[in-house]
From TrEMBL:
It comes from the Bacteria. Belongs to the cation transport ATPase (P-type) (TC 3.A.3) family. Type IB subfamily. The lineage of its organism: Bacteria, Pseudomonadati, Bacteroidota, Flavobacteriia, Flavobacteriales. It is found in: Cell membrane; Endomembrane system. This is Copper-translocating P-type ATPase.
């Protein structure tokens, strides 16, 4: 039976935009009872556009907020960074040089720009550092907001919008029909996570999740008897991809994520996973 499975899995995966690294994962895909998706780039397009730039400190203009943020975002590959750099190019901003660039895992980026300590961070980072979040930051639930902190003072924020992939709703309908729980884990804020979850009718979501917490979420699900598949795109996701029963690296991703995963999803489209599961079930039923 093995050569048959190999032949089928190779053909099916190629058709469905999946590269199968672990043959057992294909055979076991029919057992999946819970799917833990990442949000950005998988359930959503991951194509952010800047919608608002606001200042909080009167000593800074919106142009200055964007200019200082651009120095850091030019060194980041996060979809938020890509969205900000797109805006910077449109506005023909001259991007300043930076020193000592560092990622703050799951929370943002920091560097020294023109002698100032500049950070572009999540709302979670502000809360942890007792910096209050401006009231108008979350006027639109569909927006992801990042905050610009200079020398430990909040000076402004940039709001960005992403869109849900049109294929996500249909994929989720298929999972539900097959009694598969659909969950989402994202580093993004609670309000945006809830808006996406409600729109897609997910069975649950986890917001402001740090990379190491994904492993715990999967362990908890497994302890409840779930057979868990998870999607992930970054180096940070490697431990969780390894913990999942079926780990799926999405998109161009990083080599580390791809090396840990059982399956590589070429187009980051959840519909491809739906096809895999449907085909896996149909094939298994024919074989027995
Ligand atoms: P996700 O992949 O779900 O977006 P991450 O761990 O990559 O989760 O990021 C979590 C949060 O950290 C983002 O929503 C954002 O608030 C902040 N963040 C991460 N990278 C950047 C960046 N380059 N610029 C600004 N904010 C960032
Ligand atoms: Mg990520």
């Amino acid at each position: 039976a093995i050569p048959l499975v190999v032949a089928i899995s190779t053909a099916v995966s190629a058709q469905n935009g999946l590269l199968i690294r672990n043959r057992t994962a294909f055979e076991e895909s029919r057992k999946i009872s819970a799917l833990l998706f990442d949000k950005t780039g998988t359930l959503t397009k991951g194509d952010f556009g800047v919608t608002r730039i606001e200042t909080v400190d009167k000593n800074f203009t919106t142009e200055e907020v964007l200019r200082l943020a651009s120095a850091l975002e030019q060194s980041s590959e996060h979809p938020i960074a890509v969205g900000i750099i797109k805006k910077v190019k449109e506005n023909k901003v001259v991007i300043p040089n930076l020193e000592k660039f560092k990622a703050i895992t799951g929370k943002g980026v920091e560097a020294i720009v023109e002698g100032k300590e500049v950070k572009v961070v999540s709302p979670g980072y502000l809360r942890e550092n007792n910096i209050s979040i401006p009231e108008d930051a979350y006027s639109d639930a569909a927006e992801t907001v990042v905050f610009i902190v200079i020398d430990n003072k909040l000076v402004g924020f940039i709001a960005l919008a992403d869109e849900i992939r049109p294929e996500s709703a249909e994929a989720i309908r298929i999972f539900k029909k097959n009694n598969i729980k659909v969950l989402m884990a994202t580093g993004d804020n609670e309000i945006t996570a809830k808006a996406v979850s409600d729109k897609l009718g997910l069975d649950g979501y986890f917001a402001e999740v740090l990379p190491h917490q994904k492993v715990e979420i999967i362990k908890d699900l497994q302890a409840k008897g779930e057979f868990v598949a998870m999607t992930g795109d970054g180096v940070n996701d490697a431990p969780a991809l390894a913990q999942a029963n079926v780990g799926i690296a999405v998109g161009s991703g990083t080599d580390v994520a791809a090396e840990t995963a059982d399956i590589i999803l070429v187009n980051s489209n959840p519909q491809d996973i739906a096809n895999l599961i449907l085909f896996g079930k149909a094939t298994y039923n024919k074989m027995i």
